């Protein structure tokens, strides 16, 4: 009896394995053709300087428009790309596209300090990130100071030394390093002093619960204070409400990102937003 149950569950397991590998296989080929057919595009979300209200940078957020499935969220396809070993290829595409756009915008007189790019932990550990970045900068004749690379804490867990040497190479190019989703990983705070990090991005799960939920305001206050004490720039992600902005302003947090200021936008919408922003800032009374 128990043998039978065992065999049945094995068969079930086998069937789901097959379905799963089929799914992987079809995803793999869809992914590869998506890269070839230009089904990926970048959207851009501006980051606002809290003090002067100007736009300091934009973050590139990858979008996949599948002809059959429609828009697929990066939260879905990034983990898949990592699993399939395709993330480096995808990241390289993003880095090149971002540099191309930044160079083009600068040429058009758009004043942005930086363009921020999300890079997967896996990519960092293949030891080619700095090389890819250097090549993209060179190809588009862009100074490294125009780029910010966003990494999550998970990037440093498996091999701190390796991560450090890659980050140093990026720093040598003039590129800034941001720690994304800060506060959600399992990392030790000592990373902040061991690695050449320039920017902390406070995860939306903290900022979105400010000021109501007990403890969150305190955590955000502490992160901002710590970042400043360590001479890091600090960005609050996921700011959706005016009260949250007021709270962050009162903490003298440097930058803000979120739906309150602007959602991630397609290139043409982003450029329109930028022009509008410049115009309304010019019209605003001096203070
Ligand atoms: P992330 O880098 O932390 O990006 C912030 C995410 O929060 C984005 O989701 C953005 O659309 C969303 N967001 C921004 N403001 C608000 C807000 O006020 N409220 C709420 N609820 N959400 C807000 P998205 O675009 O779905 O990206 C999810 C994650 O996928 C990113 O998190 C990043 O880790 C990853 N990702 C995106 N693009 C790339 C990429 O080009 N390469 C890699 N490796 N990862 C990427
Ligand atoms: Mg990010
Ligand atoms: Mg984040
Ligand atoms: Mg994230």
Automatic annotation (TrEMBL):
<feature type="domain" description="EAL">
    <location>
        <begin position="24"/>
        <end position="278"/>
    </location>
</feature>
<protein>
    <recommendedName>
        <fullName>cyclic-guanylate-specific phosphodiesterase</fullName>
    </recommendedName>
</protein>
